[in-house]
Amino acid sequence: MSEIQSPKVIVVGAGWAGLGATYHLAKQGYDVTLLEASSHAGGLVAGWKTPGGRSVEAGIHGFWYPYKNIFSLVDELGLKPFTPWTRSAQYSPAGLEVESPIFQDLPYLPTPLGTFIYTQFQRLPLSDRLSALPLLYAVVDFDNSDQAWRRYDCITARELFKQYGVSARLYNDAFNPMLLVGLFAPGEQCSAAAALGMLYYFILAHQPDFDVVWCRGTVGDRIFSPWIKQIEQLGGKVLTNQRVTDLRVDELGQAKAVVCGEEIFTADAVIFAVGITGMKKILAGSSALQNRPEFRNLNNLNAVDVLSTRLWFDRKVNIPRASNACFGFDTTTGWTFFDLNALHDEFKDEPGTVVEADFYHANQFLPLSDDEIIKIVQGYLTTCIPAFGEAKIIDKSVVRLRQAVTHFFPGSYQYLLSAKTSFKNVFMSGDWVINRHGYWSQEKAYVTGLEAANLIIDQFKLGEKASIIPVQADEEHIQVLRQMNKSVRQVSQSFFPNLWL
């Protein structure tokens, strides 16, 4: 590499992680190229148009109160993409089950009292809700450390809740539905460690954490498109329809290029920012990656099928809450539906009703025809809100997303990668990459992209590191309890070193 040349960095995958890494490196003067396999940047949150010109995207993604880094990014970009804070509801085949307030507007209570007291359960008895109290020990014990992940990753979330005496009704009507739409799989298929991490980050750590805003259009249009323009103005390159098939290494075992079909992109460093399914596809064609045990072990990981539908109805249907989660319609599948007239600027003046309904762990639905799927979706919507039964569907979109989102199954933690790899100049990012900051989902993906960019800066000693906003500190009583628990563990291990802890 010539002294007058900027280091050449190739980033693979144009989702939150890849765009985050590319943007920061471009700001620091790197020669950075972002390669995206599809025809549009954005991964699962990119949007596109139907033949009739209607907006479609692969699911609706919320932006929760703790997403401080994403909120900081959109402010830096000068964007105003989000709705106000919204209330949400939860339905079962029996009807409305739960309504959530805007927690930050209510008097602040120490965690987890605010969540417990202010969440408005319609049917769940108090005795069942109180059965969750012993579970607080696991919440305190799980501190997002490597040791905590290894303790809890070996059992299922369902086993965890059963061990701590959570009632069957509370599990079926509250915890399992959260897992179905938060970890995208039922509790018997979810790692207890991932369940504790997700529940704590989104719900239990601080009273306002469950508060959420939504993008006022597709994330692709509202955030990614102007973001990419900024990257290109900074000198970064974003290339679509570039499916990476191999990694080339030099005689010293360092990455020197990535291969996209017949095209080769030379590199001084590489950041992979793709999901598990995409990474496994790259691995399948790369002898350089297959030679490393950490990458071969990725074949032990898996992902979950998602079904995304959008329906246009011929009349207005009153939907009390703009965002809604549903459970009990299928044993192993959770789903959500959204009033896009209320959330998306494009549809606020629509004469009819536009609804997005997304299904997670939806493998049993994917073989069905579009018409069969839409019939099921309208039936489910009608169960929740009877007026949908009288409305006529005038347009529709069905998107099948096979192996689309990370499956944090029991035992998966041991196969996840860290940001640093055994290649000195190859780094990982994405929502499935191990980090110690406690972030989750889109926020985690974006933060790991910044972390990968910072590792590049460390390596080449060029530029300033990205400033990453840490998660809000645990409340004082949680910190005290965790320190006490840690001390007890240390004493126990000194006396009983072979005890399973």
UniProtKB/TrEMBL annotation:
InterPro entries: Amino_oxidase, FAD/NAD-bd_sf, Zeta_carotene_desat/Oxidored. GO terms for molecular function: oxidoreductase activity. It holds the Pfam family Amino_oxidase. Residues 17-457 form the Amine oxidase domain. Coiled coil: none annotated. This is Pyridine nucleotide-disulfide oxidoreductase family protein. It comes from Lyngbya aestuarii BL J. The lineage of its organism: Bacteria, Bacillati, Cyanobacteriota, Cyanophyceae, Oscillatoriophycideae.
